[in-house]
């Protein structure tokens, strides 16, 4: 349902696909921002061709002005931003901390859409971290942005959402949908003065980290449930990988693309490659077998676990490490 009861001048800050989905919800609810702020175009791929952020491409398609400051303290940028006379700024996965000079511009403050139930999982990677930690439920929080990371008072939360067995992509899309709907529902109430912000319980705050490619390396000495969460959390970035050493001691890097935990006890030391009772490719962990559904040898195309078995004919001397 579109919101036609109040006109709100919004400037939207965002960068990746998550923010695109939030912006799409605002447009759908007749809350189209007067401008979008994002990062400048960046070189992408082997050819280092400059490409716009996802939010810039989407905003341009919808004829929304786009600002791309090199620095958020640039006087020219700040003057242009003030010229929009926005009631409020909204932020969704922008990727930069906003300086106080910027936070002080809109009369009604700056609202951040954060994909966790704060104060749990503050920081850059709340979706991946929720999966890694084995959270049963998560959701979305709208908070007023202050000078500290994900620290400001809460103005709205979604209902806790059951996320057991979710992969990153599925959970990302669900939380983006929740966040967009919640923001569109909350903005008119906030502008009308119908919401009292609630301070976070900072004693219960937990923090996330920026992940690197090295975080994708699988440690087979962990439990099968931990490994399953690891692969689901990193299915998009940074991906999960191991090193496959066959009986001749040749070592090759492999990507573990998809799989699942089983309740079959591991018959060998962690990392040992076996066939489970139904004949599928499996790897021993600290406790039970992990069933590998899809795998990709370095320089090769992705194949199913069964095809990998047929092509490699592994023995109990073959290990992942």
Automatic annotation (TrEMBL):
EC number of this enzyme: 2.1.2.9
Domain Formyl transferase N-terminal: 9-186
Domain Formyl transferase C-terminal residues, every copy: 212-312
Domain of life: Bacteria
GO cellular component: cytosol
Keywords assigned by UniProt, alphabetized: Protein biosynthesis, Transferase
Record bears the keyword Transferase: yes
Signal peptide interval: none
Pfam families (UniProt xref): Formyl_trans_C (PF02911), Formyl_trans_N (PF00551)
InterPro entries referenced in this protein's UniProt entry, alphabetically: Fmt, Formyl_trans_C, Formyl_transf_N, Formyl_transf_N_sf, Formyl_transferase-like_C_sf, Met-tRNA-FMT_C, Met-tRNA-FMT_N
UniProt-annotated binding residues for (6S)-5,6,7,8-tetrahydrofolate: 116-119
Catalytic activity: L-methionyl-tRNA(fMet) + (6R)-10-formyltetrahydrofolate = N-formyl-L-methionyl-tRNA(fMet) + (6S)-5,6,7,8-tetrahydrofolate + H(+)
GO molecular function ontology, one term from the record: methionyl-tRNA formyltransferase activity
Purpose: Attaches a formyl group to the free amino group of methionyl-tRNA(fMet). The formyl group appears to play a dual role in the initiator identity of N-formylmethionyl-tRNA by promoting its recognition by IF2 and preventing the misappropriation of this tRNA by the elongation apparatus.
Family matches, as PANTHER family: METHIONYL-TRNA FORMYLTRANSFERASE (PTHR11138), METHIONYL-TRNA FORMYLTRANSFERASE, MITOCHONDRIAL (PTHR11138:SF5)
Protein family membership: Belongs to the Fmt family.
Protein name per its UniProtKB record: Methionyl-tRNA formyltransferase
Annotated source species: Candidatus Ryanbacteria bacterium CG10_big_fil_rev_8_21_14_0_10_43_42
């Amino acid at each position: 349902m579109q919101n036609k009861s109040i006109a709100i001048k919004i400037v939207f800050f965002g960068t990746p696909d998550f923010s695109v989905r939030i912006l799409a919800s605002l447009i759908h609810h007749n809350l189209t921002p007067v401008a979008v702020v994002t990062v400048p175009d960046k070189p992408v791929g082997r050819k280092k061709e400059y490409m716009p952020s996802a939010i810039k491409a989407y905003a341009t398609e919808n004829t929304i002005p786009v600002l791309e400051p090199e620095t958020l303290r640039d006087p020219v940028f700040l003057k242009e931003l003030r010229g929009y006379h926005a009631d409020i700024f909204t932020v969704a996965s922008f990727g930069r901390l906003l300086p106080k000079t910027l936070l002080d511009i809109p009369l009604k403050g700056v609202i951040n859409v954060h994909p966790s139930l704060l104060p749990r999982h503050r920081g850059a990677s709340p979706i991946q971290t929720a999966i890694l930690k084995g959270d049963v439920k998560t959701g979305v929080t709208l908070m007023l942005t202050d000078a500290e990371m994900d620290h400001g008072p809460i103005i709205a939360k979604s209902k806790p959402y059951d996320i057991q067995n979710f992969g990153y992509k599925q959970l990302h899309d669900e939380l983006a949908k929740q966040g967009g709907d919640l923001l569109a529902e909350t903005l008119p109430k906030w502008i009308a003065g119908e919401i009292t912000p609630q301070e976070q319980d900072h004693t219960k705050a937990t923090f996330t980290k920026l992940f690197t490619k090295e975080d994708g390396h699988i440690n087979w000495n962990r439990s099968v449930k931990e490994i399953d969460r690891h692969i689901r959390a990193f299915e998009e970035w940074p991906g999960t990988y191991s090193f496959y050493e066959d009986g001749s001691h040749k070592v090759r890097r492999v990507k573990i693309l998809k799989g699942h935990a089983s309740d079959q006890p591991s018959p060998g030391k962690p990392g040992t490659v076996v066939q489970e009772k139904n004949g599928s490719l499996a790897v021993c962990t600290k406790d039970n077998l992990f069933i590998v559904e899809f795998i990709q040898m370095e320089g090769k195309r992705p194949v199913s676990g069964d095809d990998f078995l047929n092509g490699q004919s592994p023995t109990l001397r073959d290990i992942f490490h």
